[in-house]
Each structure stands twice: as structure tokens, then as C-alpha cells.
Hints:
- This protein has helices at about 5-20, 55-70, 75-80, 85-95, 105-120, 135-140, 155-165, 200-205, 230-235, 260-270, 275, 285-300, 300-320, 340-350, 380-395, and strands at about 30-35, 40, 100-105, 125-130, 145-150, 180-185, 210-215, 240-245, 255-260, 330-335, 355, 360, 370-375.
- By secondary structure, it is an alpha/beta fold.
- It starts with 5 loop residues before the first helix and ends in a 5-residue tail after the last helix.
- Pyridoxal-5'-phosphate binds near residues 107, 186, 217 and 248.
Amino acid sequence: MSNHLNTFYRDIEKAIVVGRTIPTVSSSQGAYLTIAEKKKLNFCSNNYLGFAQDKRIRHAAIRAIKRYGVGPGAVRVITGTNILHVKLEEKLATFKKAEAAIVFQGGYVANLAAIQTFLGKEDIVVSDELNHASIIDAIRLAQIKNKFVYKHCDMVDLERVLKEIATLRKTPKNNGQLPLVLIVTDGVFSMDGDCAPLPQIVKLAKRYQALTMVDDAHGEGVLGDHGRGIVDHFDLHGQIDIDVGTLSKAFGVMGGFITGRKVLIDYLRQKARQFLFSTGITIPDAAALIAAVDILEKSDSRVKTLWKNANYLKKRFTELGFDIGNSETPITPVMLGDEELAGTFSQKLLENGVFATRIVFPMVLRGKARIRVMPSAVHTKKDLDFGAKVFHRVGKQLGVVV
Ligand SMILES: *Cc1c(COP(=O)(O)O)cnc(C)c1O
């Protein structure tokens, strides 16, 4: 059979062999989940605080559905801004100690909106080499020609780039204005768990008059007082221009958001194409997220438990002889290097009751394959011990540890 889909027939087979098959989960996301009718320890979700199946949050969503229905009905600028969207944005701004907040359909979309709205083709972006795919895609979407990459978290290299662009930034754009310079970084690097040196980035940004943007996807609900994020962790309130977060990880639901000065948030509300031309998050999403923010404002107990669990698990893995990289956060990458080894490792974990997917290219560089373990606040010590024991057994079988 020859037809116009031949390329896909050919390439999908390749993709599945070297890539991944996607497991189907037939339970909620908790400490355990169900795959192919079997209960497995959930060791790789981003549901850090257990909010994805939290009873209080579920009930908030149900109550909201009864009152307001399900869908918002239109893009937000037509009739789709529900009172819950407004409340959620107010609560997020307060939670993040920022002037204002705007909610998008995901963290990915929020990154697109931020970069595409604030920067034009002739502006300048300076980006960490390990930034998340959504930042890379955002820079492409904005068609920014002047893009510069600095070595991962390397402030000497960042300064080198900022010096290098001295002439470029004094060259007026077609409209006569000088180009903007934006330094953009992940807050927590999602595959390694290390943190961007934000205080130094802010210092350099001030010295070289650049705007700053941080993607705090893995810092929200994890870092800072009550999980307020990396800006709070470094006490840099008001000093990062564009603070992007996700509502799909620790917050346990779905969505993304940006906090910052009111003028910038208002600008997004008027100009961001992702806001103007795509419907906002659903009613149950918004209600669930309001409940999640309320819980975090009131109590930091889940955040504390998350860190306690993470520290315990990292200690266990280290004792067992695994290389867990240089994570500074609950993200616990078990470094394996070889992609095939990582695949076999993950498969054997699953056979032994532990679900932890392998992370391979293009999510990390070739030769840097790993299994990224994600402890959460809803794992018990027994769960963590079970997980570590299975890792040890498989690790020995495959000659990774002794
Ligand atoms: C997960 C992630 C995103 C995307 O967030 P979604 O809400 O899932 O769209 C963006 N940036 C980083 C660093 C992430 O880890």
C-alpha cells in the first residue's frame, strides 16, 4: 500500500523502538497507581503534594460543577472569564506575593505567551542551554533572531554573552527603539533537579539592563515558604520580571500562570495570543486550583513532608550506591547513561511493582539516560523503602550497583 502517509508508517515504527510506549493508568494519581490492572508504586509523577487526588480539592471541583457547569463557554475576552478565573488569579498573585497574575491553559502555553508577547523578532534573548523545551519553542515561535545560549547555570558565561551583545543592543530596531534583552531560565531544571542561581542572574540583569524570566514549573509548591516557589526561596520578590509557573504539577490540576508587575500582566491580558484566541481553563480546574492555593496558604505540612520524603529517599539511594546527580530538590535522577540500560531498568522495575519511566533523548542529551524518581508527600516511609529495595534488586541484577 503506497500512499501519502508512508513516511509516518515508516517513522512510527522507528519511534516506538527507540522511544516509548505510553502506559495507560486506570486509577487516580497517588502513591500508587494502576497499570494493566496491577497496582504499582508511583515513582515518577509530578504530583508532588498529592493534590491530584486530594479529597478537599476534588470536592471543590464537584461543587463548582454543580453551580457553574463544566466549560467556560468562550475565550476569556468574549464571555469566558468566570468569577473563578478572577478569584484564582487574585489568589495566585497573593500567594506569590506579586502585583498580579494571569492564568493560561498550561505551563507550556504560559511560556509561549510570555516570550511571544513581550519580545519581537528584533529583540534579544539569552537562554540557559538546558532550558525546557517550551522555552525553546517559545523563542522559535516569537521568531527571535538574536538568540544566545549560555552554559548551564554558568554566570561567567552569562556575563560573557551579555558583554558580547553590547553593540547589538545599542543598534535600534526598525521602529527606532532599542532592542529588549531577556535573560530566561528554568528555576528548577526538570531533569536534574538543580536550581538556577537566580540572585546572580538578577545581579547581572541589573548591571546589563536586561529583563528576567524564570520558569518555575518544578519550584511551585516545592521551594520557598509554603511552596511559594523559587523567587520566594531566594527572597527575590519583585526582582524577577516574568515569573512563569505551572498548575499541572504540585498544584495537582492543569494550567499555567504568570506573575509579575501589574503593567506586564495587563499587557498580556490585552495582547497575548494564547489568551485572546484560546479558551481558558475549565470550571472544575479553576475551582480545584483555588482550593489547592488555599490549602498551601494555610498549611505548609505537605511541603514539609515532601522534603522529608525526598531527603530520606536520596539518602537511601546514595547508601545503595546509585549515582543521583546533583539535585537540590525532590527530583531524584538515578543516572544510568546508556539508553537501553535505562529502558531495561525501567521495565524490570515495573515487573517488580515500581513505576518509574526512563528519561532519554530528546528529554536529556544522548548518553545521559536516567530514571527520574519523584517522591511525593503522599508516599509513606514504607512506600519509599519498598521502592528503594526494588531499585537495589534491579540495580544488582543489571550490574549498576553491587
Ligand atoms: C512541565 C513543565 C512545563 C509545562 O507545564 P505544563 O503545565 O505541563 O504545560 C514547562 N516548563 C517546565 C520547566 C516544566 O517542567
